[in-house]
């Protein structure tokens, strides 16, 4: 419908349509249209609204963060199943209550303060350390923000910071809580256990046709082919545009003359950063080194080799932190210095190489300057083309017409799966593929998706061309697969039943673990010391929780991490690592922010009562519902 209007809005039909709409509004009024003016908000706290646009930005950012951490794409459905949408909304409500109080306290920063903050932000500076409007626009666009949204976000973050600093500037966790957390975190346990896995061939009876049919009908979607989609893209890629740009050498030389200091190579150093468990161990290592100056022995005593501690050849601003860099760049070569605090604990530094600062002439850096200029010019060209394409889309032109007008290649991709594979089972090689696929599989045929920009400035326009729904096969096509799955499930159920039977007998003291091992003809295994964060192919999260809630000398059963086996075990020992200052400080650093978050949540709950809070969960549900149609004339 929108394409039709765009194409005809400037013609006689468009003019007539506008007159018709004005006439209709004059008769029926516009109240119904604007009556839902607040439908774009998900919650309100006092005078502060949580908008759908704000929620969508935060929700997408969280999905990207989690996807990066897990190194796999997280779909919207998967995120919602884990409750991410509610978590994001709750966080926005908490922040809104803090911001509203800040506004009432007149803590809202001025435009001048915001402008200064933005001007001092390194992310918005160019190679000459100057604020660059183009970089600013690119960064906020890549983050899915408008300039107004970004400025408001900065303003509100400053309000929150003022309140948080006043609340938590001198915050200290109660010592009794630190001790309880220490006991929880540093407790370790040892168990004796046996693994039970009943053989499906021996224990599972013959599976009937009725069972096979019933199982397939209940789980048929899991045997369906993947849904596939056809789509086309217009891609404005840095690599392609960069090849067409020619930079004049005189322009490069002029830039070099104006910024010679930027092309100097700073002093660099290569050094070892040798961490220790605590200060006592570090001091002993220093004393031993003074007697023999034997660096190899010092490393061997720590179970380290040179490659473990070598920081590489780096400049002073590339160190792990300011304190480490300062010490390393003030030390002499082949000198052991320290101690210094590092992310790995108290550490010593040993400098092995120094390269002095080097001044370079134009011919040394000519190619580097030309490369930078080409990258800048290609990015400007991309934004120029972006505006032209958007204008032509607004005028109603198709992707095919735009490709011809702007001399762009229209690329079509057919029968693509949700994970990006084509019919040849090969992955597509497209920038921002995960984001493209998510939007393509959330859209209908003919949808022109909003442009997608990645972190290197590529911009891609996408159109959905076709949909092939998932195909559920006939039961005869997957019969063997169904039988295997059904046999596997039966085997799992029998194993759990047998494990529970053994647990009851151990609890009743009618059977010992040794007798179970003899009956199953397996060995009794010992876990060694395990902690709450221990996970491997045997100990799943569920089994670790079960182990740490079981009393000493008592039995438990739990599933293994991989496979259908069950653990039948007895807790043999419970111990806590000896408390020391270093471990306690490390614990405080981790749990301090968590405790602050809990206090902020409690504060927000009270503020919401005073400010009058409304939450519209039905709008959140409607936001995620697929909208197949938007009405018609």
Account of the protein in words:
The chain is of the alpha+beta class. It folds into 5 domains: 29 residues; 171 residues, Triger factor/SurA peptide-binding fold, CATH 1.10.4030.10; 131 residues, no CATH class; 110 residues, Chitinase A, domain 3; 91 residues, Roll (Chitinase A, domain 3). The strands form 4 sheets. Strands 12-3-14-13 form a 4-stranded antiparallel sheet. Helix 14 packs across helix 19. It is globular. The chain starts with a helix and ends in a 9-residue tail after the last helix. The N terminus and C terminus are likely disordered.
Main beta sheet: strand number and arrangement? 4 strands, antiparallel
Sequence stretches where pLDDT stays below 50 over 5 or more residues:
1-10, 20-37, 627-633
CATH architecture of the largest domain: Orthogonal Bundle
Q: Approximately how much helix is present in the residues?
A: 40-55%
Based on Cα principal axes, name the global outline: globular
Number of strands: 15
CATH superfamily of the largest domain: Porin chaperone SurA, peptide-binding domain
User: What is the arithmetic mean of pLDDT?
Assistant: 80
* Number of structural domains: 5
Radius of gyration: 32 Å
Task: Provide the structure class.
Answer: alpha+beta
For the termini, the CA-CA separation is 9 Å
Number of helices: 26
CATH class identity of the largest domain: Mainly Alpha
Q: How large is the share of residues in beta strands?
A: 15-25%
CATH topology of the largest domain: Triger factor/SurA peptide-binding fold
Spatial strand order of the main sheet? 12-3-14-13
């Amino acid at each position: 419908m929108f394409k039709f209007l765009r194409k005809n809005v400037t013609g006689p039909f468009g003019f007539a349509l506008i007159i018709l709409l004005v006439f209709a509004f004059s008769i029926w009024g516009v109240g119904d249209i604007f009556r839902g003016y607040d439908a774009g908000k998900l919650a309100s706290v006092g005078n502060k609204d949580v908008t759908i646009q704000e929620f969508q930005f935060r929700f997408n950012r969280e999905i990207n963060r989690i996807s990066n951490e897990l190194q796999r794409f997280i779909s919207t459905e998967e995120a919602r199943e884990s409750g991410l949408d509610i978590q994001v909304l709750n966080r926005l409500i908490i922040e809104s209550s803090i911001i509203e109080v800040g506004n009432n306290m007149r803590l809202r920063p001025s435009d001048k303060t915001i402008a200064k903050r933005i001007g001092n932000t390194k992310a918005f500076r160019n190679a000459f350390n100057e604020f660059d409007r183009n970089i600013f626009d690119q960064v906020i666009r890549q983050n899915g923000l408008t300039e107004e949204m970004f400025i408001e976000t900065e303003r509100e973050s400053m309000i929150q910071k003022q309140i948080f600093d006043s609340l938590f500037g001198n915050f200290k966790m109660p010592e009794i809580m630190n001790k309880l957390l220490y006991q929880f975190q540093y407790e370790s346990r040892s168990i004796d256990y046996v693994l039970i896995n009943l053989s499906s061939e021996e224990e599972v009876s013959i599976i009937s046709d009725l069972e096979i049919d019933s199982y397939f009908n209940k789980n048929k979607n899991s045997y369906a082919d993947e849904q596939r989609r056809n789509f086309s893209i217009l891609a404005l890629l840095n690599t392609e545009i960069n090849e067409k740009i020619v930079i004049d050498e005189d322009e490069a030389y002029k830039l070099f003359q104006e910024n010679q200091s930027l092309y100097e190579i700073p002093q660099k150093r290569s050094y070892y950063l040798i961490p220790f468990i605590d200060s006592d161990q570090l001091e002993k290592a220093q004393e031993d080194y003074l007697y023999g100056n034997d660096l190899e022995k010092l490393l061997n005593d720590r179970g380290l080799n040179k490659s473990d501690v070598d920081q590489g050849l780096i400049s002073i601003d590339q160190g792990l932190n300011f304190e480490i860099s300062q010490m390393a760049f003030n030390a002499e070569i082949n000198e052991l210095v320290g101690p210094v605090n590092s992310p790995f604990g108290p550490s010593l530094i040993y400098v092995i190489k120094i390269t002095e600062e080097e001044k370079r002439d134009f011919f040394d850096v000519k190619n580097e300057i030309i490369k930078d200029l080409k990258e800048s010019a290609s990015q400007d060209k991309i934004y120029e083309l972006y505006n032209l394409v958007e204008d032509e889309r607004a005028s109603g032109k198709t992707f095919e017409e735009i490709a011809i007008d702007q001399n762009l290649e229209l690329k079509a991709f057919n029968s693509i799966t949700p994970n990006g594979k084509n019919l040849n089972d090969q992955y597509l090689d497209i920038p921002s593929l995960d984001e493209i696929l998510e939007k393509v599989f959330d859209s209908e045929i003919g949808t022109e998706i909003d442009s997608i920009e990645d972190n290197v400035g590529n911009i891609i326009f996408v159109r959905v061309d076709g949909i092939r729904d998932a195909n559920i096969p006939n039961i005869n096509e997957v019969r063997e697969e169904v039988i295997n799955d059904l046999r596997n499930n039966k085997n799992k159920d029998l194993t759990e039943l047998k494990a529970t039977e053994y647990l009851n007998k151990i609890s009743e003291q009618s059977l010992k673990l040794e007798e179970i091992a003899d009956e199953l003809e397996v060995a009794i295994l010992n876990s060694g010391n395990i902690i709450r964060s221990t996970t491997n192919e045997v100990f799943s999260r569920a089994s670790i929780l079960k182990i740490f809630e079981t009393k000493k000398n008592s039995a438990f059963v739990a599933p293994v991490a991989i496979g259908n086996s069950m653990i039948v075990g007895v807790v043999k020992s419970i111990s806590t690592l000896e408390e020391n200052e270093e471990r306690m400080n490390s614990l405080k650093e981790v749990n301090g922010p968590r405790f602050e978050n809990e206090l902020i949540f409690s504060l927000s709950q009270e503020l919401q009562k005073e400010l009058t809070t409304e939450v519209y969960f039905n709008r959140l549900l409607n936001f995620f519902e697929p909208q197949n149609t938007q009405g018609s004339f």
